[in-house]
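Hi team,

As requested, here is the filled-out complex form for the GLP run. I kept the field names the same as last time so the parser does not choke. Let me know if anything looks off before we queue the next batch.

— J.
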Amino acid sequence: MTVTICADHAEASARASAIVADALRAEPALVLGLPTGRTPVALYASLVAADLDWAKVRTFNLDEFAGLPPRAPGSFRAFMDEHMFSLVNLPPAQVGFLQGDAADEAGECARYEQAIDEAGGLDLLVLGLGANGHIGFNEPGPGLRAGTHAIALHASTRAANADRFGGDPARVPARALTLGMRQVLRARRILMVATGPAKAAAVTALTQGPLTTMCPASWLQVHSDVTLLVDRTAAALLHDAKSD
Ligand code: GLP
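And here is what came back:
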């Protein structure tokens, strides 16, 4: 894992944007995995401002809240439309998304898994990091799931996502659909951005702790091509941290 300590969130976002832009220029038909959250907002703004051709790109987002119709306020699909999809020339048919309100959740998860497999897997997966070490919505617990699945969200995760629901954690859906560890670890390249003091413990656990299902992101240590961009505050608890 390559860990780069940036001066601040803006630098981490600019570096992340440059990595995604380079990958897209090198492979116009890139299969790109994408996160939501506050962290990638600046990255998406930078990609939108860049001179990039999205005509052949395929995207698959990591996760979606269960029970929400596509584009409902608060949904991750609405977030992506607002911050990126409506602002670049990415054909809507090339956007992959879990449908949160699918009547058959297991069938929807199987459909999504198969769609990514048929695209050849993810070339580049951009990840955020939950303060409790989650990736996508793979929450800490006694076990992790390999396939795309539905999961109950931890109270802390609902609280962390409350800003999309009027600030009220009780209005955040209690469950979500998410990619599992198989598609995450199968991605040919992984780029994670984690900034802010709330991520410091998780950054230390994922880079310097043991592999454990209690920190899903720790499993990134077994992947051969992970770039982790952090700012100084997220790196504050790293042992022997050096600025790049
Ligand atoms: C949510 C998403 C994750 C994201 C995390 C961190 O839980 N499911 O994919 O990485 O939030 O969000 P933020 O960037 O707002 O801290």
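Two things worth flagging: The helical segments are 9-26, 41-49, 76-83, 105-118, 155-160, 181-186, 200-208. The first strand starts at residue 2 and ends at 6.

Thanks,
J.
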